[in-house]
Amino acid sequence: MRTPVRTSSVALALCAGLSLAMAPAAGAAASAPQAAPGALPATASSQGVLEAGSRGAQVREWQALLNRIFRAGAVAGSTVSEDGVYGPITSRATRTVQAHLRLAQDGVVGPRTRSAVSELGFATGVGGVSPSSGTHDSGRRLRAGLSGDDVREWQRILNIAVELDRLDQPELRVDGEFGPQTRSATIALQKTLEVTADGVVGPVTRQATGFLLEG
């Protein structure tokens, strides 16, 4: 018997999403190359935790993800300046999303917050952050034969749809392989969504799935 899921937000919070890749903090050695004009020094920890005082491209990417989520209406909140500085406004916006996902509201972007918010972004069709480069990636088109973390996340989303009784299919094994069962579940979901049922996960399917899980 499946444990009832209280809300789609809870289910999304429990889902481990694609992580934002965080580079080690920049060194301060005198021999290091000069930063490009206008660039911000990176001050995130080596574990990729973002908090008050963090600066740089990692923070800017996080701010951009928050803004996409707010603009899409997935969470009610005010957009922030994408200036790469983790100040009080960014911290407050982070706490807003943490509250929506029922996470600890500490305003700190650690692994749990990062993965849950990134997953919310993908589930609502606004994209997330590429785990390899830290840049925006709205999600590659997933189809039979592909494998990887993004396939694993799609399988988790399909299982959330099953848990919420939005999809009448057996739960999938989350193995990161887009095989026949994943394709069959994808087609079944696409039919429910009334989008092209081709078993390919593109922007239209992602966005429609986000609306379904929020409803």
Characterize the structure shown.
This protein is mainly α and 215 residues long. The protein folds into two domains: 8-18 and 39-137, Orthogonal Bundle (Muramoyl-pentapeptide Carboxypeptidase, domain 1), CATH 1.10.101; 149-214, Muramoyl-pentapeptide Carboxypeptidase, domain 1 (Orthogonal Bundle). 41% of the residues lie in helices and 2% in strands. The protein is built from seven helices and two strands, in the order H-H-H-H-E-E-H-H-H. The protein has helices at residues 8-14, 57-71, 88-100, 111-123, 149-163, 180-193, 203-214; strands at residues 128-129, 136-137. A two-stranded antiparallel sheet has the order 1-2. A hairpin with a 6-residue loop joins strand 1 and strand 2 (136-137). Helix 1 packs across helix 4 (111-123) and helix 2 (57-71) packs across helix 4 (111-123). The radius of gyration is 18 Å and the shape is elongated. 37% of the residues are buried.
Main features:
single chain, about 220 residues, mainly alpha, Muramoyl-pentapeptide Carboxypeptidase, domain 1, two-stranded antiparallel ribbon, about 0% strand, disordered N terminus
Q: Bin the strand percentage.
A: under 5%
Tell me the number of strands.
2
Instruction: Give the low-confidence spans.
Output: 1-39, 130-138
Strand order within the widest beta sheet: 1-2
What is the number of helices? 7
The CATH first-level class of the largest domain comes to Mainly Alpha
Estimate percent helicity. 40-55%
Task: State the end-to-end CA separation.
Answer: 23 Å
- Helices and strands, in order, run as HHHHEEHHH
Shape label: elongated
Number of self-contained structural domains: 2
CATH architecture of the largest domain: Orthogonal Bundle
- Tell me the CATH superfamily of the largest domain: PGBD-like superfamily/PGBD
CATH topology of the largest domain: Muramoyl-pentapeptide Carboxypeptidase, domain 1
